[in-house]
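Structure ticket #2291
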Amino acid sequence: MGQGKSRVLNQIRQLRFAHQEMTQQMLADRVGVTRQTIHAIEAGKYSPSLEVAFRISREFNCPLEQVFQYRDSATPESGAQ
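Resolution: structure written out below.
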């Protein structure tokens, strides 16, 4: 996506802890990516493919918009992450 933080914000860390303190590795195994990928997505250093984003939201049984949010130039920096 280029350098710096992604404009795609997420609630993955909060959702993992709300789902019996699921580890990054457990989520990675369930959605078919590496633990490092989950870590990078959580940290906002990597934006997942649409397919991976849907798999993650399905794992948490949440709408995609509950897991991921897009911050555009009009959205304040103090948004959720």
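Closing remark: The chain has five helices and two strands.
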